[in-house]
Amino acid sequence: MSTSSKHQPSFSAGSDPAALEPNLSSLLTANGGRWNLTKGGEALEREFKFKTFARTWDFMTAVALQCKIKNHHPEWSNVFNTTFIRWTTHNPKGLSAKDIELAALCDQLAQDFGEVIEQQPAQPPPSQPAGGEQQQQQRQPGATATCGLAGLADRAVGSAGDCCVPRK
Question: Where is this region: Disordered (predicted)?
C-alpha cells in the first residue's frame, strides 16, 4: 500500500542513485510533485483523474505506447475516470531510471490529456463528520490512492508472473 514520499528510495541494482535522485526528487509530493514512494521505497505511485472515461482511456493508450517504446510497463488499474499507476522494476527489484523517466512522462501526458486536479480547501467544512479530515487528505492531489485502486494493482501483480525477467 502506498505511503507518503517521506520514505527513502530503494534503487534497483545497477542504478546510479546520484544521477537519479534529482529527477526523482522533483516528482515527489514533498517537493511539489504528485508522486509518492511506496513503503520500502521500491516504487513510485499516484492516481490520475480525467473528466471522462474516454479521456482516461486516451491517456492510458498514450502511456501504453510509451511503455512499448521504452520496453517497460507499470502496475496499473482503472475505474471509470481514474487510473492508478505504480512504477517499479521487478528484476532487479527497486526503482530504476526507466521508472523515474516514465513517471515524469505520465505527468506530461496527463497534462496534455486534461487531467482534473481537484483543489481542496485548507480546512474541512464545519458540517463534515469526525474523521473527515483524514478522508479529505486522501483526496488531495498527490495523496495516496482511494477506492482500492492500489489494492487492485497489488492483487494483479501477485498473479502476473515474472514480467521483468529477460526472455530466453
Answer: 119-144
Lowest mean pLDDT among 19-23, 67-71, 116-120, 131-135: 131-135
C-alpha cell at 162: 515474472
Cα(164)–Cα(38) distance, integer angstroms: 19
Average pLDDT score over residue span 16-29: 95
Beta bridge partners of 77: 84
pLDDT band at 155 (very low <50, low <70, confident <90, very high): low
The answer, yes or no, to whether the previous bond of 9 is cis (omega within 30 of 0) is no
Domain boundaries, the chain: 17-118+130-158
Specify the amino acid at residue 123: Q
Q: Which of these CATH numbers, 3.30.1360.20, 3.60.15.10, 3.30.70.1530, 3.40.50.2300, describes 17-118+130-158?
A: 3.30.1360.20
Helix (H, G, I), strand (E, B) or coil at 75: strand
Alpha-carbon distance of 67 to 77, in angstroms, equals: 15
